[in-house]
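Supplementary Methods, section 5.1.

A reviewer requested that the exact input to the structure prediction be made available. We therefore reproduce it here, unchanged from the version used in the analyses.
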Amino acid sequence: METDKTKQKDLKKEEKEYRRHKRIWWFCRHFVGPFIMNKYGCKCTVTEKLPEPFLLVANHSTDLDPGIIGMCSRQQMYFVASEHLYRLGFLSKILIWAFKPIAKMKGSSDTLTVMKAIRYLRNGKNVSLFPDGNRSFNGRNGALTDAIGKLVKTSGANLVTFRITGGFFTNPRWGYGLRKGKMTAQVVNVYPKEAVKEMSASQIRQVIEKDTYENAYERQALENIRYKGKDRALGMECSLCICPKCKGIETIYTKENSVNCVNCGKLTDYSEYGYFDQGFDFKTIEEWDDWQEEFYKEYVQTLKEGKGPEALGVEKPIFSNSDINMNIVKADHSETDLGKGSLSIYLDKLVIKTNVQTIEIPFTELPDMSVYAKTGLVFSDAAGTHYELKTDKLINVRKYIYVWSNLRQKV
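The structure derived from this sequence is encoded token-by-token as follows.
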């Protein structure tokens, strides 16, 4: 009997929260959203009423994508968002009270997130998420797996696909500030739950990939939009760290609109149209990034074959960065400060070293890694301990993921 009363009390509390969230959604659409759209120079197409409950999936383009999506829909929804939103002090309390985002721990397989999203949908609430999980560093969507198709099928909800264009040049992940140009946002397709039921997980993934696909440079080649802003190249070393001329690793640095190498000097400028100078090795960030990925594959292969510098990766780390702030993040969103120290990667492990301890994590116990913001690295070990490493320096942490993803194939 007591259990029934407790359930009824919880249901009333959830319903009260839901009504509050819907009122706040209405308020933000009318009084906050227009400022976001004006700031980003984004035009949205407002949808007619969507069949509820729905799971809306979108490409991840800017810091304020949830606000942009909200301006395109009058119907309230809950967003799956990075767990760090729960660790922003007083601001987190406001966000949770107003929107109650579903926390997703980056760099880990977070089954609790999936279960919570499914529960919301089965209870008649709408949910929105970004299936590739990360904003793009090169203007092209990340690859998806059939896991998103399984989530859609299991939820039993209607599927809504959504696409944002122009976000990569307006608010580049590696950059600072906004550039004024052109952005659009709109629903692409609606798939009723009856149609979803007849589709396989793979088929669902394929329609999501097709509908949310965005390649900034393919679009720019057609539209040639000018994106005006200062310090256009600043921060690009967080995305691109290998010089195409001298093949130096982490020799790239940026200043205002120029991209430079500590060995070769100035390499190129970065224009308001998102292109490098004519005559440079690459025309676009996408081209440079694709070349960089292939470079790492060849580089790692030489290490596997023992053809690299003597003892590199065995006694001497392949890469190492110092002055990194290190935390362990717990399931309740609390943090344990490990202090400041260094991160190093070897042929078979990551090593975290501070003044008081050294933590070695073999690749066999490192199932996933991800980049957080520009220079943060997050990952969980096999025991479920979640590490968050971050620094204010303009370093490239993507190199750790490139090397780990190639080296772990042998372990």
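The first helix runs from residue 2 to 31. These observations are discussed further in the main text.
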